[in-house]
Structure prediction request, 334 residues.
Amino acid sequence: MNRILTTAVISCLSFSQYAIADEPTYVGFNSPRGFAVVEVGPALLNMKETQFFIQRGENSPFAKEAVLDTGSSWSQGGYIGGEFGHSFDLNKWGFDQYTVSLAADWTRTETDSSSSFYDTGAGVRFGWVTLDNSNGYGTNNGNTLTTMTDRQFDYGGATVLISGTKKLGDRLDLTLGAGPSFRRLLEKNKYHGEIGGGSQVDHNENLTTNYLGGAVKASVSGNLTHDLKGSVSGQIGIYRADSSFNAQQTISSNHYSETRSRSLMSYSSDVKGTLSYALDEYWTLSGFGRLTYLSNVPTVNYGSSPQDTANGKLRLEEDSLLGINVGLSLAARF
Prediction:
């Protein structure tokens, strides 16, 4: 009797083993695969140069003739980013796998410079105007304007993406995704100017823009060798951009302050190339390069003195941002 029961149990276990092995290999939402990525590296941002210090006419209406070159449009700094999410194998709507992820990044760059401009004689005057455009200051013949500028930029944000991946043969994968996105650009500027030991200006301002909208992303990745993988991705975002400007200025004992705001539509584009090496089943080390563009970035036109009506008053205008960063990333699957 015991021998019969033992034989029956072994037979059932053997049948179950083969039955399970014959089941489809489909893995559904009950089997998530998580991942986390951290990336760092140096960064460059290119934005419009400051228009604060100007060349002015020596006679009424003391027109603004040119913006003085007091620094580079490029600023240098660092970048940090990351992504966290889960992937699910699911054959639906033409895709083989779906991913829900949160990606965030932050770039900080700075630039500072000092310059001097010598007034050689008639027809040349260097200076600035007050924040409220009520008055202007400029060099007399033989005077020198010395300037110091200090600029800091913080640009970053976060995007939630729902993506689908489809295999294109044995080596390539195509991934398409979309989701809500938020970004912020904060610009802090400090200017100091002095005319021949006489008039001095100290100027501090903040220019903040919040970008709220959505983004779509596409990427192609492929295995170059067993452990080496390459990918190229592109992302486009469309945003409502709300900007606010506030500034304080001191000239001798006179104090000025101004605020401005504006809202526009803006778009961003981002192209990234990555080369990844699998350290083991769970860890991947990558090198990457990225190019970023952002439209309708606010810049400040400080206007001119009251008599120079053609150049108007202080106002926000539009320009663009270009970002370049390279670095290393470390990814873990769990």
User: Anything to note?
Assistant: The chain has one domain: 32-333.
